[in-house]
Amino acid sequence: MGFAIDKIRADFPILLRQVHNKPLIYFDNAATSQKPQQVIDALVHYYTYQNANIHRGVHALSQEATDAYERARDLVKTFFNARLREEIIFTAGTTHSINLVAHGFRSWLQPKDEIIVGQAEHHSNIVPWQMACALTGAVLKVLPIDENGQLQLETLKSLLGPQTKLVVVNHVSNALGTINPIETIIEMAHGHGVQVLVDGAQASSHISVDVQALDVDYYITSAHKMCGPTGVGMLYGKKELLEALPPYQGGGEMIKEVYFEGTTYAGLPHKFEAGTPNIAGGIGFGAAIEYLNTIGLEEIAAYEHELLMHATQGLKQIEGLKIYGDITHKTAVVSFNIGQLHPYDVGTLLDRMGIAVRTGQHCTQPVMDFYGIPGTVRASFAFYNTKEEIDIMIKGVQRAVNMLQ
Ligand code: 7TS
Fold first, then answer.
1. Is 227 tagged catalytic?
2. C-alpha of residue 233 to centroid of ligand 1, in Å
3. CA distances (Å), 122 to each of 25, 177, 232, 348, in order?
4. pTM for the whole thing?
5. What are phi and psi for residue 383, nearest 5 degrees?
6. What residue owns the CA closest to ligand 1's atom 18?
7. Domain ranges for the chain
8. Pairing relationship of beta strands 355-356 and 255-259 according to DSSP bridges
9. pLDDT tens digits for 15-72?
């Protein structure tokens, strides 16, 4: 059976939109994915019929809302194959999850301790660690990429040492789409007794992830990159590590007992979930996972790879076009420039044709500095995109080049 693209596209009402009087072609999926009707319905259903605060009411509505929210946690747990449901912490998203862990690390980092960070990280996986280092005297060490955007594992070998406390890398680069060999990185780090945090924001709706098989210590993502709502995401952590990690925010729900003499904290996952959470968001996250499960991540990955190959081959026909991170082991992201044309100009012309791409640094300034460029044009595809849309974009890029050169 082929990929049921027409049926899938019909689930996404936004794909019927026009932009500048042209049918929308949405190729900014790495920034955020579109939402299927099933997810939109789940949000509306919660607010229409179940709205109540959770974990605290004896009344029926609160119980129903709690059940729906906690069911979503089970869906996330199963999706990532975590061992225990309390290892899944709901957060506001990837940025929040990373800050939560980095804040905990502030409590035990010592001067001269080292954190190894990939060169192609999103700023949200750099700055929280810089802040932790600034407060503790720990040192950030950079694991460099090569010309293709791949992490230099030989260098990791020499960077890992007795001072290393943590390695932080993304699973997939948002700027380039390159897939990092996290299995090897985790094995190498664990060989030195070092924990690994993986930013999975760009992987989790494209690559099947099994946190137990990976033996990863922390794995993080945002629901909005996975057809879910904004403002909700996940931190997976091994139970013993999360139990040792100090809480991030203090407040209601994260406590066991509060006395002015001192407070004790709730168990996992509540210790890290202070205050009223994004209840609708959590439920919508669960609905997004159910939706992705109905299609299947293996099928999604295979289809998106076809899109990637089609786009890569077509774009390479354009004279002077350079793709950054031009390898095959990547998700469906093509980051490129044409000669000296400014990516912003190309992106603006594509927008006039109804084609949404992202231009600029993609919150990865060190990657742009590495290549010595102001930014790139980034087309990032999802399983509801088509080769026909890609053909329109390729023609559009050629038109933009003709107009700008
Ligand atoms: N890490 C990676 C690898 C990302 O791609 C992003 C968002 C984040 C972290 C931050 O996620 P948030 O949900 O907390 O904002 N990346 C992008 C992007 O590539 N274009 O817009 C947002």
1. no
2. 11
3. 25, 12, 18, 23
4. 0.98
5. -70, -10
6. 31
7. 5-30+296-404, 40-293
8. unpaired
9. 999 999 999 999 999 999 999 999 999 999 999 999 999 998 789 999 999 999 999 9
